[in-house]
Amino acid sequence: MKRCRWNVLAGVWLALVFAGCQQTTGPGRRVIPGNWRSNDFPGGVVRMTLTEASRQVEGAGSWLDEAGPQAFRVRGVLSTDIFSLYFDFQDRADITLEGFFVANDRLTGELVGGEFDGVRVTFQRTGG
Fold this sequence. Notes:
The chain is built from one helix and eight strands. With 128 residues, the chain is mainly β. The protein has an eight-stranded antiparallel β-barrel. Residues 12-26 have low confidence and may be disordered.
């Protein structure tokens, strides 16, 4: 659990460093608010609904795998097209997703924490 929290702190620190280096004349930041669904999650499906204000990301999601469905809370940061999200579960180990936008409607990153150690997953924006 402590390792996961340190990963989140490291991700937040990196996002803030990148935010400080951001050019104001370049392309705008990616838009993360909305509904997202995993495309290639091994053994299940992950869905989440995210909001964002002042680079802070929040939301909620559902995790469905062999163990059954579980809800989680999402907290994290977004900088340009890089993000770090912390999945806070009630009855399982918390998980961090760190990654980047592949396109405006697609995220990719690695899951770390619990039974995951760098498992790559992609999310697609959904309509509702």
